[in-house]
């Protein structure tokens, strides 16, 4: 979804950097480029882009990621729909 953003500072995503072994699976499975991996450690580089799909937590081999999956995904889609609807109502550009 172009320009997708979740609400700022509400994603439940948490990363235990001490537990991370730097395998890169979270980087591979995340659809929104939330992670980077440098020096064999993952980092959250865009936490507000997380839609709480849960793929990273399910695929982390050492359970270093925690996220409350499910609700956020639906909320993110609804929020994006509302944002585009409000942009259309105000005459702004939204879709291409
Ligand atoms: S829950 Fe989904 S969107 Fe959020 S960081 Fe994990 S893989 Fe990415
Ligand atoms: S999947 Fe888990 S162990 Fe692998 S890089 Fe990501 S946080 Fe670290």
Q: How would you explain this protein's 3D organization?
A:
- It is a single chain.
- This protein has about 100 residues and is of the alpha+beta class.
- It is built from three helices and four strands, in the order βαββαβα.
- It has one domain: Alpha-Beta Plaits, CATH 3.30.70.20.
- The chain has helices spanning about 25-30, 55-60, 70-90; strands at about 15, 35-40, 40-45, 65.
- It has a two-stranded antiparallel ribbon with strand order 1-4. A two-stranded antiparallel ribbon has the order 2-3.
- Strand 2 and strand 3 form a beta hairpin.
- The mean pLDDT is about 85.
- One iron/sulfur cluster binds next to helix 2.
- One iron/sulfur cluster binds near residues 24 and 42.
**What general outline do the C-alpha atoms trace?**
elongated
Alpha-beta content class? alpha+beta
**Helical percentage:** 25-40%
Q: Might you state the CATH topology name?
A: Alpha-Beta Plaits
Mean pLDDT over the full residue set: 85
Bound molecules: iron/sulfur cluster
Largest β-sheet summary = 2 strands, antiparallel
Terminal residue distance:
11 Å
Radius of gyration, in Å, reads 15 Å
Low-confidence spans: none
Series of H and E elements: EHEEHEH
Domains (count): 1
Which strand order do you get reading across the main beta sheet? Answer: 1-4
In the CATH hierarchy, what is the architecture at level 2? 2-Layer Sandwich
Q: What's the CATH class, please? A: Alpha Beta
